[in-house]
Design brief:
With 253 residues, the chain is mostly helical. 81% of the residues lie in helices and 0% in strands. It has nine helices and no strands. Helix 2 packs antiparallel against helix 3 and helix 8 packs antiparallel against helix 9.
Amino acid sequence: MRYLARTEVHAFGFAIAASVLLSLFPFLNVMASLSLYVFKWKTVVDAIQAFIKDYFPGELGYFLASYFYNPTKIEFVSLILLMFTANGIFEPLEVALNRAWGVSKDRSYIKNQFLSFLLIFLCGGLILASFLLSTMNREYMVKHFGTDDVVMRWIAIVIARLIPIPMIMLALFLTYWLLPNCSVPVRKIAPVAVVVGLALTGLQYTAIFLWGWIVDKIKHDYGFFSHSASVILFSFLAAMIVLAGAEWSARSE
């Protein structure tokens, strides 16, 4: 709590949240393009829509899912835009991780960009893999048990919600391990990545539970910009959890 009360940590958190807002829509377009024109799976698009509705609570999830359309071609412009906007997530995150580990010298801008590109592909690949696995699970359950079995349908829903959790943990582990400008002991960050992944999942379902009350307040203050404000708020809270995990893993150092 003392760490999260620092002014610089809030600056890092809001910088990450703003970059998430800028990169979210290009990310959705890229995922749609890859699903339709590389993997040739229309059902993956449906799985991504279901994931968006599940991860982002209430009206925000339906708004983002409605924006997620079927492109008529591979969105190269969205891919290029994603590279630049998503890099904005890893720049403040690297500085924050370096401070947590006591590293005073950050990477050069060019080196940070190359590493950010690598992390974008790794983390994006893990997210896409979770979509593919969810789709394969649903197709398997429908093929072998049909759509009338209520119990098996609920089992498929539970499995689909559990699949992204280890992917998030692995993405956190890669971020904690590769992003700091120093050698990071795996034995310290591995359990932290697991706990932070569970904490992010807890944040997701807490937001779902409280979202009706929260969204009323946001709409009252932000009106037309309520969805953008919701994404920034949700991302800021998630960023603070990720930063707290980084500080926890490096505390003894």
